[in-house]
């Protein structure tokens, strides 16, 4: 990889990941190291922001909604474009993914227990002048471990629905959290910062619309995607209310009918969680 001499100004970094928790934590720590940081929550947004923001370094997840991270890299690393350093942050263990990263000349940091160590090393490799800063501040938090597996919060007062979805998600390597109503879900989301929330519409102590309103008022939960399920026909008026912006942030990512056939739901979850589909598991 051709080296890029650090400019007098702070290096521009674009962080693209659909995990709101990781984006927030990594952005805070990289800003403390001296980077000028911009963020994106999906591949299409990353492409648009990269073209406008013109970053010096891109930190990007592989599995994201709309456009995956490797496709973003393929477009941004065109030889006719300005040089761009790339660090791929991924929980994937697929050898093909690593081969493609190396083909792009990208460095990768595996999500998991060693993520912060690998991220520090990647940034110092690209910007050696940051070594002393990294040793003093670094990207590594004292206690926060980057999750190798996605985390889904299921919100439903029907225990059978939660059991059905949870058993299938766990087989795909997804960590599952539970809440029986909107109030409990909001508290849990603030504490655990799930990758995505799947919520029933009708619940005691507040419906899905109430939950969205609460989530979008907190910086910790304002960008977490929410998929709303309902066993009844919600009608256009309620669906439009769920999809509208709440406090300037996106409403429901998707609205679906509850069904024993969960293939549509799991197809949507795969966009946000990036788990590999397993033909042996009935969805």
Automatic annotation (TrEMBL):
<keyword id="KW-0597">Phosphoprotein</keyword>
<dbReference type="InterPro" id="IPR011006">
    <property type="entry name" value="CheY-like_superfamily"/>
</dbReference>
<keyword id="KW-0804">Transcription</keyword>
<dbReference type="InterPro" id="IPR050595">
    <property type="entry name" value="Bact_response_regulator"/>
</dbReference>
<feature type="domain" description="Response regulatory">
    <location>
        <begin position="12"/>
        <end position="134"/>
    </location>
</feature>
<keyword id="KW-0805">Transcription regulation</keyword>
<dbReference type="Pfam" id="PF00072">
    <property type="entry name" value="Response_reg"/>
</dbReference>
<protein>
    <recommendedName>
        <fullName>Response regulatory domain-containing protein</fullName>
    </recommendedName>
</protein>
<feature type="domain" description="Response regulatory">
    <location>
        <begin position="151"/>
        <end position="273"/>
    </location>
</feature>
<dbReference type="GO" id="GO:0000160">
    <property type="term" value="P:phosphorelay signal transduction system"/>
</dbReference>
<feature type="modified residue" description="4-aspartylphosphate">
    <location>
        <position position="61"/>
    </location>
</feature>
<feature type="modified residue" description="4-aspartylphosphate">
    <location>
        <position position="200"/>
    </location>
</feature>
<dbReference type="InterPro" id="IPR001789">
    <property type="entry name" value="Sig_transdc_resp-reg_receiver"/>
</dbReference>
């Amino acid at each position: 990889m051709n080296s890029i001499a650090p400019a007098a100004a702070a290096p521009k970094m674009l962080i693209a990941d659909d995990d709101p928790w990781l984006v927030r934590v990594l952005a805070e720590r990289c800003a403390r190291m001296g980077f000028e940081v911009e963020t994106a929550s999906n591949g299409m947004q990353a492409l648009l922001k990269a073209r406008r923001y013109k970053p010096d370094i891109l930190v990007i997840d592989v599995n994201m909604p709309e456009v995956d991270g490797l496709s973003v890299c393929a477009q941004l690393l065109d030889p006719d474009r300005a040089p761009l350093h790339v660090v791929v942050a991924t929980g994937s263990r697929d050898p093909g993914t690593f081969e493609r990263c190396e083909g792009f000349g990208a460095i990768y940091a595996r999500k998991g227990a060693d993520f912060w160590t690998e991220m520090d090393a990647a940034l110092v490799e690209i910007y050696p002048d940051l070594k002393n800063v990294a040793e003093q501040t670094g990207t590594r938090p004292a206690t926060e471990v980057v999750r190798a597996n996605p985390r889904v919060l299921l919100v439903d007062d029907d225990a059978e629905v939660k059991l059905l979805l949870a058993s299938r998600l766990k087989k795909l390597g997804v960590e599952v959290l539970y809440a029986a109503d909107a109030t409990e879900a909001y508290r849990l989301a603030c504490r655990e910062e799930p990758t995505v929330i799947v919520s029933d519409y009708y619940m005691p102590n507040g419906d899905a619309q109430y939950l969205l309103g609460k989530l979008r008022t907190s910086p910790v939960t304002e960008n977490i995607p929410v998929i709303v399920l309902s066993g009844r026909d919600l009608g256009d008026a309620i669906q439009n209310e769920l999809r509208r912006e709440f406090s300037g942030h996106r409403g429901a990512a998707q609205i679906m009918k509850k069904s024993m056939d969960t293939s549509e739901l799991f197809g949507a979850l795969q966009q946000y969680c990036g788990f590999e589909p397993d033909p042996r598991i009935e969805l």
